[in-house]
Automatic annotation (TrEMBL):
Residues 91-193 form the VWFA domain. The lineage of its organism: Bacteria, Bacillati, Bacillota, Bacilli, Bacillales. It comes from the Bacteria. The chain crosses the membrane at residues 6-24, 59-80. This is VWFA domain-containing protein. It comes from Alkalihalobacillus trypoxylicola. The keyword Oxidoreductase does not apply. Residues 4-78 form the Aerotolerance regulator N-terminal domain. Pfam families: BatA, VWA_2. InterPro entries: Aerotolerance_reg_N (IPR024163), VWF_A (IPR002035), vWFA_dom_sf (IPR036465).
Length: 599
């Protein structure tokens, strides 16, 4: 037993003050009376009375003394030592919801389900005074409940969590955990499968137990890491990854536009990577390869690839074209149509794109490459700005994979008002190349005039425009590839409402062309978008993130200066100052009643 704030004991001086107040207060009044005979009798009767009757004369004093004493005891925060099964008064439980938690541990139970089971077991061991916070980790961490003590609420929150399949951003999650760990007695319990000790040690100062689920059992997995279709030569290339598998035969199935085209097998060797090469494939829109293998991780057994049109698109060039680009376009497309204004085109070809040099504020319903030539356009080019810095391009964009703008000289560029396009290349904080969507149509923009740069003299100039045309003229039935829960504009083929249908033929969502941002489904797979009026079908694929393709679990560990348990129990300081606050309040009510009745 002890106290946590002994310095508040100095407030006992108020008790001394209360005693002094009663000792030196005026108790008698001097008066002249005819006889003191009656006073003598009264004094004798008082002296002969019991001691507790005498105390009634000072009842208010004792009550006030008790109130002050109770408050002072509460301020010094007395405690006694108790035992509990878990260390810490605040338990923070963190659950990984990434795709790798879908791997099985045994008997069809996934790592995610095993983690939920272990979290519930931990809740059963906590004491009544321990508070619990629960957080999930995906692309963005989410705090489900904070410092809750009710077991039923905590149990419901854990059982209601669903796996989100996106990458687990533990750096951001652990920053939030550290912010919640403001108390001394905080213990963190993390349920994951591939969390590394270095990340935890760099991010957390509290005692942390990391349970990497699945490291106790042998793990076997073979999965598809890459599936590429060469449409010109009708070939397919499939790369496989394997973990813990021995040399054996693996069956696979190739589906084209929903119809099974090929069923075959190959011998998996002991190498970490294997390859399958398929020839003479028929034309189609959607290709899907599936491994018929009963391994411990099913999500990476299937992959989807969309076709690209074999014929080149019709290119509409609106406005006065640059001679550099006009010569290049003849090598890219077989059919190029030049026009001075948009109104000169009476009918647009289906498989076509637009390259616009026009300053018209017209939003075409086609994929468009805007070339800055004059003020105006839907991008609102407003003024030319001289450039004094070399261009800087941002990494991670496939369109710039073979382009190096750091060696390109650009004299001036057109500045724009704020828009929703993503900047790919910039200089002097002025966008030079941007990409995005306008009215659900894909858009690229070059913010400088080709004649005011030496870019046409560089070898990567034709490569960029070839890739730009390929990207803008993609498969119209394919809406592209999405990461789980990725948010971005979706170029819908037609206006109206669409149903999002999964591979089990279940309608999981409805979207309309008025929605500016589309949120992709969380589970990897092939999804259909069906127009509710015309029944036209488009496809999109949610792919498995690369970090979730290798799913071998790491070892569990503990970091921080944890207290060693004695016979399976931890000691903690159990404060009981609230009892004295309640006592002071009750005595205050009694004191008020005594004062009111003048007892």
């Amino acid at each position: 037993m002890g106290v946590l704030a002994p310095y508040f004991g100095a407030m006992s001086i108020f008790l001394v003050g209360l005693v002094a107040l009663y000792m030196f207060r005026k108790q008698y009044e001097e008066r002249y009376v005819a006889s003191h005979l009656f006073w003598r009798e009264a004094l004798k009767e008082y002296q002969a009375s019991k001691w507790w009757h005498k105390l009634q004369k000072h009842l208010l004093f004792f009550l006030q003394f008790m109130i002050l004493l109770s408050l002072i005891i509460a301020l010094i925060r007395p405690f006694f030592y108790s035992e509990q099964s878990l260390q810490g008064q605040h338990l923070i439980m963190v659950l990984d919801t990434s795709a790798s938690m879908e791997a099985e541990v045994e008997d069809g139970i996934t790592r995610f389900e095993e983690a939920q089971k272990q979290m519930l077991q931990l809740l059963e061991e906590k004491s009544n005074t321990q508070r619990v916070s629960i957080m999930t980790v995906g692309e963005n961490p989410q705090l489900l409940v904070s410092q809750e003590n009710d077991y039923s609420i905590l149990e419901k929150e854990i059982l209601d969590v669903e796996i989100l399949y996106s990458e687990a951003n533990f750096e951001r999650a652990l920053s939030l955990v550290e912010a919640l760990s403001v108390e001394e007695e905080t213990t963190v319990h993390i349920y994951s499968d591939q969390l590394q000790q270095e990340i935890v040690e760099q991010s957390l100062s509290s005692v942390t137990n990391v349970y990497n689920i699945g490291n106790e059992q042998p793990f076997m997995n073979v999965g598809i890491s890459s599936f590429v279709i060469n449409h010109e030569q009708s070939h397919a290339f499939i790369q496989l990854n394997q973990e813990g598998m021995e040399e054996q035969q693996v069956d696979y199935q190739l589906t084209i536009d929903g119809e099974v085209f090929l069923e075959d097998s190959f011998v998996l060797d002991n190498e970490p990577h294997s390859f399958i090469y398929l020839e003479d494939l028929p034309a189609g829109d959607t290709y899907q390869i599936e491994l018929i293998e009963n391994d411990d991780y099913k999500l990476d057994n299937i992959a989807t690839s969309f076709s690209q049109p074999s014929e080149s698109p019709v290119i509409y060039v609106i406005g006065e074209s640059s001679p550099f680009l006009s010569l290049l376009l003849e090598q890219i497309s077989e059919e190029i149509i030049f026009a001075n204004t948009y109104s000169d085109i009476t009918e647009w070809e289906d498989h076509s794109i637009i390259i616009s040099f026009s300053d018209e504020n017209f939003i075409p319903e086609k994929p468009t490459l805007f070339m800055a030539q004059d003020a105006g356009t839907p991008l609102q080019f407003n003024e030319k700005v001289p450039l004094t810095e070399r261009p800087v391009q941002f990494d991670g964009e496939s369109l710039l994979q073979f382009t190096d703008f750091s060696q390109v000289f650009i004299l001036e560029a057109w500045n724009v008002e704020e828009n929703s396009l993503d900047v790919l290349v910039q200089a002097n904080d002025i966008p030079l190349i941007s990409k995005g969507y306008i009215e659900n149509q894909p858009v690229l923009a070059v913010h400088f005039e080709l004649e005011q740069s030496d870019w046409p003299l560089h070898s990567d100039f034709p490569i960029f425009f070839y890739q730009a045309v390929e990207e803008l003229s993609g498969n119209e039935r394919s809406l592209g590839y999405f990461a789980p829960l990725e948010q971005r504009p979706l170029p819908l083929p037609e206006k109206g409402l669409y149903q999002v249908i999964d591979e089990d033929n279940q309608i999981i969502d409805e979207i309309g062309d008025d929605e500016s941002i589309f949120v992709a489904p969380s589970k990897p797979g092939l999804y259909r978008l069906r127009h509710m009026e015309t029944n036209e079908i488009s496809y999109l694929s949610v792919y498995l993130p690369e970090s979730e393709q290798f799913v071998k679990a790491f070892e569990s560990f503990m970091v921080g200066n944890g207290e060693a348990p004695q016979e399976g129990h931890f000691t903690y300081k159990n404060e009981f100052w609230k009892i004295f606050v309640l006592l002071a309040f009750l005595v205050l009510l009694v004191e008020w009643e005594v004062f009111r009745r003048e007892l």
